[in-house]
Write a structure and sequence with these properties.
Length: about 90
């Protein structure tokens, strides 16, 4: 059974990576799997494959994934990213 890939799913997955809840390797694996077996939401079929493809290359030094890249990706997905800094307890 394939999972439908929506803007929300991609934004949530990228958020999990940025919050340290998944590794870069896991993010890349997710993106590769989504490109191969994911059911891309038809109304987002122009933007999602490009964004997911970029995430799938994030572990390649020539491409990488900077904070600025993430901000642009979130914007294209219809979201805005914020950073919250908390003291270590």
């Amino acid at each position: 059974m394939t999972t439908q890939i929506t803007r929300q799913v991609v934004a949530d997955t990228l958020s999990h990576y940025l919050q340290g809840q998944m590794s870069l390797e896991a993010l890349v694996d997710w993106a590769e799997e989504a490109m191969l077996d994911g059911d891309i939401d038809p109304q987002d079929s122009l933007v999602l494959p490009e964004i997911i493809g970029q995430l799938g290359l994030a572990d390649v030094r020539a491409f990488g994934l900077t904070w600025e890249d993430c901000q642009k990706l979130f914007h294209r997905l219809g979201f805005q990213a914020h950073i919250f800094v908390e003291p270590v307890s």
